[in-house]
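Researcher: Let's try something more involved. This one mixes different molecule types, so please make sure each is placed in the same coordinate frame as the others.
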Amino acid sequence: MPNTSSPMTEAMYYILLALMNPNHGYQLMSSIEQVSKGRIKMGPGTLYGVLTRLQKDQLIIILNDDGRRKTYAITEEGRVALKAEYKRLKYMIKDGIILEEGL
Amino acid sequence: MGKFVKRLMLDDMYALGRNEAWFSDMARKGLHLKKIGRIFGYFENGEPRETNYRIDIIKENPSQEQLDVYHDCGWDIVTNNRDFYIFSADAKTSTTELHTDPIEQGLSLSDLNKRLRNNLIMMSMAMMLFLGMMFSVYFLNKEPFLFMIKGSFVQQMLLVVVELYVFYSVIRNYVAIRNLKKSLLQGNSINHREDFRKARLTGGILAAIFLPLAIVCICIPLVEISKRQDYTLTENNTNLPIVRLTEIEQNPKLRRERGYTSNNVDWANRVSYDWSLLAPVQYEIDEHGIIEGEVWGDNSEEYSPSITTRFFKLTFGNMAEKLTFDLISRYVYRDDTEIKAINHSELKMYLAEEGIRKHIFTYLDNKVMHVAYYGKRPIEDIIPMVEMKLLEY
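Model: All components are placed in one shared frame. Result:
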């Protein structure tokens, strides 16, 4: 059973997000940093741990492996999971709006 | 290249934080980790340096690309032992932490956790089987003391202790990973500076107890084998703890009757010497004779008396009585044979007569003796001779 259960960890969410464009591990970290506008500096252990797990759960695949570097891409299943999580987070933000009003 | 130093890995390998803290502490003393095994860690002597260590459990061999990414983040691989990968980074240069998401790290331990749990289940079943076997050997046995002395009881008990230690470490492994996983999943990062001293001390004490026991376990059977001896009983006088046929029969016509011979040992007239921790002196001695011109009581065949002596010197004198009873149970074959207990001077003796087969069992302090005589002379004649031998040996 793929682990698509919400909530996703932050690491998992951002890796899936970054893999909307196929990428290799080397650049993934900087992509994540970019996409999170520098908020997230992911450790390499975490990065590869998540990649291994997502691959096992078939949320991502290896698009290309030339022996030197592997290019990962999100799968359809991964997209679905990511969108579901995005929706959930959006609702959470929407519901949290009262905090803004309260301020 | 500096000199290499070996250190025992006394702590549980799966206590990641404690081991990382220990490696850092060693590096601070100028001992830099180079290799780890199950028992030893190998360190290279060099300049003291502040170094951070991280243990990463990686199931598949990391690719060069992965190692490059780690390197770019400041983490260089030191060594690995199966799926344990150890990385180090200079503490002074600021580096990205290896794991930034405890929950993800916790999830990555799931497989290992499952494997160690299965390991523990298998080991528990094996332990139950093993203990059950040990239990049945000693408690369902009719002659437990005899078995203890002849069979390598001490070694088996040591084996049980060593097995228990192995079992303990399997439990410890599993508990360590289970707790680590639980704590990570709750969002707590590994404490890379966890105090390792107490755990290493406890581990050290246990290892100091069990490792020598394991070695003794291996050595005892070797000693037993090396001490075992079989040789032909001389026809001259010996200082062995035996009553000789010549003394009993008092007949100048008595000659030795030879038996099956192999390895230069006449098995009908043989001395077997054995050693065990519980009974460092064990003799089983057979002597067969024949008297020309004399026949057995039923006129059937030429009279051929024989005698078997079993002699034990025990480590613990208080086992003597129990061993005597076990010998009676083992060597008096018929259940309806009457066992007569007599007090002969200061000795307690047990007599059993089954026709021509006459048994005398006796013990004194830590010495136990069983004489089985097959012949025509009355048991009363032999009693004082047995007594004398037991007293003088």
